[in-house]
Every structure is written in structure tokens, then in C-alpha cells.
Amino acid sequence: MLQPVDKILEKKDLQLDEIKTLLQLKPPSNAILFKKALDVKSKAVGRKVYLRGLIEYSNHCVKNCYYCGIRCNNKLPQRYHLTDIEVIEAAKYAYKNRFASIVIQSGEDSSKRFISTIERLLAEINKLTNGELHITLSLGEQSIDTYRRWYDAGAHRYLLRIETSNPDLYKKLHPRDKLHDYNHRLDTLKTLREVGYQVGTGVMIGLPFQTFDDLAEDLLFFRKIDIDMVGMGPYIEHENTPLFEYRAQLLPLKERLEISLNMVAVLRIMMKNINIAATTAMQTIDPQGRERALLAGANVMMPNLTPAKYRDSYLLYKDKPGVADDAVGSKNAMEQSILLAGETIGYGEWGDSKHYELRIKN
Ligand code: SF4
Predict the structure, then answer these.
(1) How far is the CA of 5 from the centre of ligand 1 (A)?
(2) Model-level pTM?
(3) Nearest ligand 1 atom, CA 59
(4) How far apart are CA 109 and CA 295, in angstroms?
(5) Which of 312, 235, 189 is nearest to 65 (CA)?
(6) 8 A C-beta contact, residue 285 and residue 253
(7) Percent of the chain whose pLDDT exceeds 90
(8) Which ligand 1 atom sits closest to the C-alpha of 70?
(9) CA dihedral 260, 261, 266, 270 (to 10 degrees)
(10) Which of the four pLDDT bands, split at 50, 70 and 90, describes residue 348?
């Protein structure tokens, strides 16, 4: 027999079936879940939203993930790298506007040139900002030496999304070769932790072939690997990708969003003091999607600082919002959405994951 939701929400450690029950709540029944998650968030990490200015450094990628609009076999996007000056200007903008953190994201590239460019940029940004701007990298799978070099050059956090914790589903989303190996990705998450990074991962929600068991297992996976930060959001299909073929199997976008919000809320209840991002993909489906995520337990936002002329070349999925905005437009839109949600902005604060702070103390 199914347990009542209010009884499940009183439990200390949620188990698979309980998580599945919560993930399947539909509006308005999920309001009780969001209320509980907001309460947990307020007590564990407060009601501040921390900013990470997002710099999409390059859309060159050696990989060919079946869901991604910038995978190497898609010949349509115009490929770019930001210049050093463009990266530095974006970092300076974040610093001057007291964002306190940036994220440098890119398609995957392990060439010597790429590795040393990132290393040089990290050193330069650190010098320019007296080490006051915290830097997160999201540059895919690299060797331990590369991760060490970037860490030593001043990167503090690393995001590497597992996309799904189910190895069989992972195989359906990626080519079956060494470059797209589930176990390697898992090992890489461990390597990042070993090097000393604050480590983030995440999954897509509402994928073809994905079940509620998979999603519940994803949340248990985050708990098992003791992750510091999570960024997850609805899967949004891109027409120039192999996975688009399975679009008939997908849930309506609005349902994918509701399940994503349920995922955020349940995760906040399960892992009280981690950082959870309100992702742009949520805003793609609903203009209020990011505010709703904040009220469901998220506490991080990533306003886009990529120069406007490159934004429509970094479309991982269709209809990504903010493509026509510049840095000021992104900042204003984000500020408005945070205030609308009744939260405050942690200007000038790094907003490190409290989970990480405790982890390194012990
Ligand atoms: S998801 Fe990331 S690694 Fe995969 S093709 Fe896209 S940019 Fe490359």
C-alpha cells in the first residue's frame, strides 16, 4: 500500500519507493513537497541565492553525445573559441558586479593548447581579482594531471554531469566507445574529489527510455557519492541530434518540468546542505521555471556572461532562453527572477557548498 505523502516527508532517510512516490506527485499535490523542501533549505543553507557568471568558452567538442546540439558530428553550429580578452572581460564584469564566482564551460577538448590556455586564463583571472573570484570549471573528462594543473592555477569547483546514473541508459545516450564510457565518467568524478575540487554533477530528467526508478536511483546516487553540488534539469530535445528520433516517447515539456522540480525538492530534503542550481532548461519550459526551482530548494543561479554574438552557437538544446541577451540583460533578468521568488542575492559571497566545507573539515 502506498504511504501518505506527509508521512514520507517526516522520514529521515528516504528509500527508493518513497522517493518514487514523491517524484510522481503532480500539481497541486506537489505543493506540500515544495513547502517541506523550502523549509529544509531555509534551515540548512538559508534563503540566499549565489551567483555564478557563466562563460561558454567554446563549442568545439570531441564527443558525440546523442542528445547534444554541439556534438562533433553536428556540422550546423558555427564553431568558436572566445578570445582571451573576451574571457577576461566577462570575468571582470562578474567581479565588478560582485558575482563572486564564475563558471567556465566548454565542449570537451584535451589538446595541449586547450589545457594550457585554460591554465593561463585561470592564473590571469586570479591575478586580476586578487583571488577573490571563485572559479568553477565545466570542461569535461580530463586526465588527473590536467585537473591538478587547473586546480593549482586557481580553479575551485568542477562540474561533470553524469547525465544518468543508469549505465544501460547511459549507453543509449552515447556512442559505445572509449570516449563515452560510463565507468570512466564515474571514475573521473572520484578523481576530481581526490584532487581537491568541490565536485558537482547532474542528470537530465524526462529522457526517452528513462523511468521513475532511474530518477529515484539518480538521487540515491548523488547521496552515495556524497556530491557537493548538483545541476539537473529537464531534457529538451534538439532536432539535429540522434535522440530526436525518439521524441514521440517523451512526456509533455510541462510534465518534464514538474518532475524536475520534484527532483530538486526531494534532493534538497535528502542532501540538506549541498548547492543545487536552478537551471536554464527549467526557464526554457516556463519563464518562471527558475523561480519555481528556488522555491523548491535550489540556491544557485548562473547568469550567462558569454558575449551575445556567440550565444546562438552554444545551443545544447532547442529554444534556450537568453540567446539574444547581453551580460547586462542576463543579470537584470536573473535579479528580477530572484527577487520575484522572495529570495535575496548573495552578492560578493562565494556561496561554497556547506556540504563541501563540512566534508573537508572532517
Ligand atoms: S554534452 Fe558535452 S561532451 Fe557531450 S557532445 Fe555536448 S558538449 Fe560535448
Answers:
(1) 37
(2) 0.95
(3) 7
(4) 36
(5) 235
(6) yes
(7) 86
(8) 6
(9) 90
(10) very high
